[in-house]
Design a protein that fits this description.
alpha+beta
């Protein structure tokens, strides 16, 4: 319990006083998408494409379109449309807060210091800290971050294909290229390429192939830092709530789409598309490639009976 308190307070400090910055781009015209939700994307508050006619920070865009109150010298979002931070509202019993992602990556840059560019997706969500407070990457702005990357830099995309998944990996690569992702490479799965990443990486593999790996088991064991709202076993996939408790269980024909990263502002996040069986893997890939927008607004997802089960389970 002491560790968790120290961790969450440290995370809050990073949100408020992050030392990173994003240089204003030379070209400021174009369009960005601003999304504001609550309860892990369950309820939409604002979702619009906004034209850029000059350089504007994330905070400026928020202030132009929503009722925003700040704290700590103006760098911390205290409330949006009356929904207040649990850390600045002493009367709040359950710790609720605003978290924001740029192209699906939890930012390491304050809202006053990040200047989005054409095509970027800004997503603010208001939710409880729960037992999985840290979500370094989410899937709900796909095909970002593969299009734009993070802070104006895109290292390219690497898709790692597990045994028997080559065709699915190639289909995913073809889709990404068709929507404008410029650099996509497919290679056979190697754990080192997933753990020591130089590119945004997607692993497409049966869970059985990965389940005995200390790397993947470590991601599951530390889901409070990796942001996984799922528990994967060889014979069952479990969907979790924000308190990391099992809510649903599927034993066959189930796939998963999950994302994580090495802390805030990881420009090379790791995505996993997996399944108990090939049907599950195929359905998860199809949810990305054939049904545009199906995973929009989700932190993670299970795919069962060709339906999306949003994670965490509400």
């Amino acid at each position: 319990m002491l560790y968790k308190k120290v961790f969450t307070l440290a995370l809050l400090v990073m949100f408020i006083f992050s030392g990173g910055c994003s240089s204003p781009p030379e070209v400021t015209t174009g369009e960005v998408t601003l999304i504001v939700t609550r309860d892990f994307g369950k309820e939409h508050i604002f979702n619009e494409n906004i034209k850029l006619d000059s350089k504007k920070s994330v905070m400026e865009l928020l202030n132009q379109h929503l009722d925003v109150q700040t704290a700590y010298g103006g760098g911390f979002v205290n409330s949006i449309n009356g929904l207040e931070s649990g850390y600045t509202n002493a009367a709040e019993k359950e710790k609720l807060d605003w978290f924001y992602f740029m192209n699906g990556i939890m930012t390491s840059v304050g809202a006053t210091e990040y200047f989005p560019t054409n095509g970027d997706v800004i997503w603010w969500d208001y939710h409880a800290w729960g037992d999985i407070p840290f979500t370094p990457a989410v899937i709900g702005t796909f095909p970002q971050p593969f299009l734009n990357g993070y802070q104006g830099e895109n290292p390219g995309t690497l898709i790692l294909s597990g045994q028997g998944c080559q065709d699915l990996a190639e289909a995913l690569a073809d889709y990404l290229k068709s929507v404008g992702v410029k650099e996509v490479e497919v290679k056979p799965y190697e754990e080192k390429l997933a753990s020591d990443r130089s590119k945004i990486t997607i692993v497409v593999a049966l869970w059985e192939e990965l389940s005995d790996s200390s790397f993947w088991n470590g991601i599951q064991a530390h889901r409070d830092k990796t942001g996984w709202f799922a528990e994967l076993e060889k014979n069952a996939f479990h969907g979790l709530n924000e308190k990391a408790l099992r809510q649903v269980t599927y034993n066959q024909g189930v796939g998963a789409i999950l994302a994580t990263g090495m802390g805030m502002g990881d420009s090379t996040p790791l995505w996993l598309i997996t399944g108990i069986d090939m049907e599950g893997v195929a359905d998860a890939v199809k949810a990305l490639t054939s049904e545009e927008g199906k995973i929009s607004g989700h932190f993670g997802a299970l795919v069962h009976d060709k339906s999306i089960v949003s994670l965490p389970i509400q």
